[in-house]
Amino acid sequence: MSLKNQFIQSKLQHVTTSIFSVMSGLAIKENAINLSQGFPDFESDITLIKLVNNAMINGKNQYAPMPGIFSLRSAIAEKMGHLYNTSYNPETEITITAGATQAIFTVIAATIKKGDEVLIFKPAYDSYEPTIELFGGKTIAVQLNPEDFKIDWQIVKSLITEKTKMLIINTPHNPSGRVLSKQDMLQLEGILKDTNILLLSDEVYEHIIFDGEKHQSAALFPALRERTFITASFGKTFHNTGWKVGYCLAPKELMNEFRKVHQFNVFSVNHPTQVALAEYLKSPNNYLELGNFYQQKRDLFLSLIKDSKFEFIPSKGTYFQLLNFKNITSESDYDFAIRLTKEQKIASIPISVFNQNNLDTKVLRFCFAKTDVTLKQAADILCAI
Prior knowledge:
Layout: H1 3-7, H2 19-30, E1 33-34, H3 46-57, H4 70-84, E2 94-97, H5 100-111, E3 117-122, H6 128-134, E4 138-143, H7 153-159, E5 164-170, H8 182-192, E6 198-202, H9 222-225, E7 228-233, H10 234-237, E8 246-249, H11 252-265, H12 271-280, H13 285-288, H14 290-304, E9 320-324, H15 333-344, E10 346-347, E11 349-350, E12 363-367, H16 372-383
Helix pairs in contact: 2-15, 3-12, 4-12, 5-11, 14-16
């Protein structure tokens, strides 16, 4: 018996390095324009950076309280009240996390046990399924229609069993850019009403939404709010994904369970960054103007590639755009993404890795959270293909 097998048996035998690491690593190696991983190539607001620096200079360099500093939790509560006319107690219902992915991990760790079923919608963010598996749960995947990514709620209802413990939604949706409507949320509310099923609502792109659409937070729907963990990200909102600061919202009883895990999983999140964000949130325009900011980038990117061979439906939210390449090649999306990176020097994400059974619909995901210069360079490459 090898030492490898003698000392450890993998709990995630089928998990490999994430596609984000693969494609970003290849982009660096090939010196390619990186439109794969979801991060901006422009700086965060210098005002926010100075606030972090000031917090460090003023001695906010030791452990923050386990749930997060109270001023930041209060600012989040005020934001939720302003945007969604709902009340979260900053003392007992809001916890600051080391990014939204940590919040998602902690929610699942605190609630899912062996044999529990969790419904997710594919294509799905790649952290959901391995985390469910890690804690003994079983993923029940609902493959979305690749044409419009709409949810068939009758199918969802038919998959609910006595073992169903949780349902995970993501709106605006990564990678499709689709936004759940009020009618979607009402149908979900009707399905979950009178059950003990929990909801994990991944709302990291809540402020990046276009064309006059409104974000339908789970917090807006009483029968959802009472059973929901909402996860959110400051990194996505304020262009600083490397700071890894987010938060989780939940009713007191649910948050109690969340914090039982959080205190040992992370305990304390970056203190000076929390101080800065608490101050920065006092100006609502810092997040209210985000939709218009990214809509301009989406519109620029799509206008620049409108004469290319790629087909697309404009994204309704997030800073991702799907492009269909069926008129270009019959290659798999993975092979085409690799070739584009190596030969054309532009990196993207193949959607099949997020789909049920790696369904390949000849679609790549491109991130448009880039400077106008980068988007124009990228468009020149895509139009030449």
